[in-house]
């Protein structure tokens, strides 16, 4: 797949008859006898960006981890292209790129080695593509520096470069803006809108007010409007 190729073929990927890529139905989760969410319903379509909002501890990370299959203490249904994810785990995981709270960068490896490893889990890509992804996130000339010698924001950028080499349709990102400077924030916002522009879908938690040219749907786990 080339970087500009559409991510979704409506004939092959959406043949289930539903427009939704991801559907969350009647989701219930409680932790330590405290209900985080109950009867939570939402869907995500190709070309859609959904921002999950909520106060600290409201369950944003928990929700994302449930969807990604990293937490199974819930009730309800999660569907991918109309079919339960539990019945098509490999297909779902092949369509998903999750970047969690911890950036998931191996600090012994260099940025280039991290991206090679990340790509090898799906579709290996050549080094020229890896290097151009690293350049795009501002890491030109840092390709061979061990990540332990990079700053927190630079490690976050290594992680975000994975977005550029991944064929995944669905990006699930947990607080991806946290350590980024203003240029990094702008670049990531650009990446998000390019992805949805190509028919991808994004589920993102952030307290940051997104400044993107595409529409942003919002899901607030507090159930109340938040200040802008
Ligand atoms: N490993 C765990 N075991 C038990 N309870 C947990 C665990 N991790 C989180 N919780 C609880 O689940 C609730 C939701 O946590 P979660 O991390 O999903 O919130 P969040 O909305 O992402 O918060 P933040 O905005 O601070 O990142 C919190 O009340 C927390 O105490």
Automatic annotation (TrEMBL):
Domain ABC transporter: 22-228
Highest taxon above the source species: Bacteria
Keyword Magnesium belongs to the record: no
Cross-referenced Pfam families: ABC_tran
UniProt KW keywords: ATP-binding, Cytochrome c-type biogenesis, Membrane, Nucleotide-binding, Translocase, Transport
PROSITE patterns according to UniProt: ABC_TRANSPORTER_2 (PS50893)
PANTHER family in the record: ABC TRANSPORTER I FAMILY MEMBER 1
Name of the protein: Heme ABC transporter ATP-binding protein CcmA
Organism: Pseudohongiella acticola
